[in-house]
Each structure stands twice: as structure tokens, then as C-alpha cells.
Amino acid sequence: MVYEQEQIKEIAEEVKCFMLESRLAEDFIKHISGNHNKGRPVPKIEEFVDNGCLRYELICFLSYRLSIMKDTEQKDRGSLLVEDLEMISDRTQRIERNEMEQTAWEVADLLKDVDYFKFAEYMKCMDDPSDPVRRLYMDLKIPEKRAALADYLLKFTDTAYTEKIRKVAAKLKDMDRDREASLTAGKKETHHRR
């Protein structure tokens, strides 16, 4: 699964370039315009890559167009792009997650249980289940947002999820402590070099 929004942007840019070079952009816009309500703007390629249902439409379109293309380097490149698109929400691709990725899933599950409205703030219409988790992951990388989420979860310690909430909130706060410790160690090392 792809967690970093920067990777989403890179894949979107590659898809856009591929469509322009393969002269598929116009057909794709016509195809999408026919599938969406008249009068609504066509989403940007990045929105297609970032959203589960839209991504599925993009994969179907590209897969069909690649299936009728002659075997060329361009077709191979397109096939690799389809694999990249499929990998975005493929949770089976890598079973082991790093601590931040695992915590994002835990926070998402907790928010679903204790305040689905808060979880919905990370959702967009037609999302794949992994899309809001990726957005949560991006927030967890920002110390202020991570601390705010920990504090928010701690408001629900009088529920059936008390132990789980305390455990996850502690993880979130430990990430800040670990970060501060590594920053302090880095400053000391720089000071000793002088």
C-alpha cells in the first residue's frame, strides 16, 4: 500500500504524461464525462489516483486501452503504471508495516468505533477503505496534529475502548518523545563536532 501523498502525486504525474504521450487523454476525458453527472467538472488525474472508486475507473480504462495496444515499450510502461495504481490500496502487498503505518490503522479503527464523524473528516466520496488511512498517516507525521489526535482520543476513555485508546494515545505521544530525543542527540553530535 502507498502511504505517502508525495508518491500519489508522482504516480498521477506519470499517468498524465503516459496518457498525453499515448494520445489517450481525450478519450479518457470523454469516457469519464459520460460516466459522471453532466455539468460537473472532470476531476484532475491526481484525484483519480487518490480516490478508490475513481482509481478503479482509471485502472479499467487503462487496462482496456492497453489490451488493444500493440506490444511496444509504451504498452509495457502502461502496464507498469496499472500495477502502480493497483498497489496504492493493496494492503496484502506488504504485511509488515512500520510503526507509523500500523498506528495510522489503529487510529482509524478507533475513530470508527468512538466517533465516526471524526473518521469521516478523513474520507472523500467513493474512497477505498485505505484512502482515509493514508490521509490519517499524513497527519500523524505532523507532531501538532499527532498530539491533537492523541488528546482527542483520550476524551473517550470512559468507553468500552479505554485500554485500546490509552495504548494508542501513548504510542502517539511516544513518537513525539522519540522525535525530541533524536533531535537532541543530533544537536549534541553537532555541538561535539565543533
Keywords:
194 residues, mainly alpha, 73% helix
For the termini, the CA-CA separation is 43 Å
What fraction of the residues are assigned to beta strands by DSSP?
Answer: under 5%
Q: How helical, in percent, are the residues? A: over 70%
* Alpha-beta classification: mainly alpha
Low-confidence stretches: none
* Main sheet record: none
Which series of helices and strands comes N to C? Answer: HHHHHHHHHH
The number of distinct β-strands equals 0
Mean model confidence by pLDDT: 84
Backbone shape: elongated
Secondary structure tally, helices: 10
How many whole angstroms does the radius of gyration measure?
21 Å
Please outline what is shown here.
This protein has helices spanning 5-21, 25-35, 45-50, 52-67, 73-87, 99-114, 116-120, 130-140, 143-154, 162-193. It has 194 residues and is an all-alpha fold.
